[in-house]
Design a protein that fits this description.
The complex is a heterodimer of chains A (about 120) and B (about 260). Helices cover about 60% and strands about 0% of the residues of chain A. Chain A is an all-alpha fold and about 120 residues long. Chain B is mainly α and about 260 residues long. Helix content of chain B is about 70%, strand content about 0%. Chain B has helices at about 15-20, 35-60, 65-80, 100-105, 105-125, 135-155, 160-190, 195-230, 235-240, 250-255; strands spanning about 85, 90-95. In chain B, helix 4 (about 100-105) crosses helix 7. The chains are: A mainly alpha (about 120), B mainly alpha (about 260). Chain B: Belongs to the CbiM family.
Chain lengths: ~120, ~260
Amino acid sequence: MKRNTRINLLLLLAVAALAVLPLALGLGDHKKEPFAGADAEAETAVTELDPDYRPWFSPLYEPPSGEIESALFAAQAALGAGVLAYYFGLRRGRRQGEERALARGEDEGRGSSPAPGSG
Amino acid sequence: MVPVSQETGQGASSIHEVLERVCPVMHIAEGFLPPAHAIAWGVASAPFVVHGVRSLTREVREHPESTLLLGASGAFTFVLSALKLPSVTGSCSHPTGTGLGAILFRPPVMAVLGTITLLFQALLLAHGGLTTLGANVFSMAIAGPWAGYAVHKLLRRWDVPLMVTVFSAAFVADLCTYCVTSVQLALAFPDPHSGFWGALGTFGSIFAVTQIPLAVSEGLLTVLVMRLLAQSSRGELARLGVLPDRPGKREAVAR
């Protein structure tokens, strides 16, 4: 494996470890709902800090369930990942095409037309 | 995982729990800033976003070839702000992904890309909100990118290796976003006894602990993407001034 690839994989591994460690070590066990963002209880919270406060606006659209919400979050991540993958795939393809064109140009020697433009 | 965990005493609801409910994963929830604050943050953010739209259109007009990389930077923010990761405090939060775009295209452009991400989440995911959009844009799309960019520029001036500055910039951008959010919350909901500074201290210290591991993750992921970019888009990075311009035969062809 190339050194570059190895470093990239190590970076990914470190990120995964950082995400898994809190779970593996049970750092959320002292909570009622470990590793949850408790949106639903939001109203009580501000009442504790400021008893007079009432939220004055509610979301126009709310995902009907936690499943739908996670589906939408997954869609967001997938959309982003798709665009990133497209970008890197396109770049890689272009680079390979250029290298091939360059190699072909060298094979044909100097007399022939210069390396064709990038695709 | 332990399915049931014991409840630790009632009544004494710590500010930590309170914070978690107001601001479950970083963005301030819909309707949870008083109108005056919501409007003020909106007014503060608007010029940055307008300026950002202008520099974004200028960038696209002058360098149409950078549209793809712009899309990739926006996509990176999309992915990272959808990743809710567990943290050492036992709650979840997510990174912001704004450091990368700030380094590549300067912070004004990131103000636009960040706003798009926040709008998407506010409209479709009921995460964040329209009334709190101004405040959330200010923390995630303005303060974070500028802080990260400043760190990047400063460290580059001292000839720190590129990947170290990239890591630091992403780390600082992420952390700064959360610090600004705690300032916003402390301003809106000061502690009854110790006032603004008391609330800020508590909010800030909680945020810091939850967010530091995530900021590290964000730093590592940003370094990863920057390494891939340095392999695949050297010419582009040189044009944007991220990589030193090394006129070579390869780059000349690659353009």
